[in-house]
Amino acid sequence: MSKLTVLHLRDGMKTDITEIVSQVAWQGSGDQLSRRLDITTVNSLSISPGDWLVLQDEAGELFRGIVFTTFRTTEDTITPYAFDPLIYLDKSKDDYKFERTTDKKVIETLCSRFNIPVGSIEGSKTIKKLLLREKGLAEIIKELDTEYNLFLREGKLYREKKGKQVLQWVLDGNLIIKATAKESIEEMKNSVKVIEGGKITVIKDDTLIKKYGLLQEVIEAEPGQGVTTAKDMLKELGRVFKEMDIECIGFNECITGTYVEIEEKKTGLTGLFEITSDTHNYEGAVHRMTLTLKEVS
User: Fold this and answer.
1) pTM of the prediction?
2) Distance between CA atoms of 37 and 54, rounded to whole angstroms?
3) Three-state DSSP string of 191-211
4) What is the model's pLDDT at position 204?
5) Which of 83, 38, 24, 6 lies closest to 287 in space, CA to CA?
6) Which of 105, 173, 193, 256 is deepest in the core (most CB within 10 A)?
7) Domain of 228?
């Protein structure tokens, strides 16, 4: 396991508390933008909501975030947990109206509003009109383009194309401690009905329909755009969905949004998977991680 360092920041003062930290848990999920850090340390340490925690390994900074909650026990321990600054987008709503702009500009505007520095934002598409009122800001940002991952690196927001972060090694039976595999057609769509004004077109996969029955979606689109959208949808949803939950030896590079090769002979699932949630637990010299993964179509 890489050597970890835990720093406590308050009022411009930085203190290395690594030696009095007994447990560390670092986690993220596709359900929200922000990542979370939990530590367990001695009760005598003065740490409060509003302080900052930093987690580092030998390669650099893994996490930097603000303490939101602390728990103190009669066993002389305190367990604070912190979120990185993207928590402000996860927990906030606002009233914005964007017209004739780009999704990149939308992200930059919202980050500026919540004092989140921006690194680089890959990709850019035109936004004709976007009204932010009912949905959370993080949900809006993620929906701007689902082909990209959003994450913080050393305090700055980055957006990168999915598949760019592919780990160059394989999680196999030598590293996996426990695995559960799931195969399901609950999310399958094998037919898409396209409504373009008064015209109706059906894009379908007869082989899947014959084997699994008709599972149809209906979309409305501008004339000339629907068929392409339907074909893309059928390509993404016209399949058996494969997911895995695994517990294995930990690697700090395995975080939500990253792609990793899996070879698990007992469950029979192998191939390229996207990490959709991750929890890393560190105690002493032991680093284990629990991952939820979905097969990349």
Assistant:
1) 0.86
2) 9
3) EEEEEECCEEEEEECHHHHHH
4) 94
5) 24
6) 256
7) 191-237
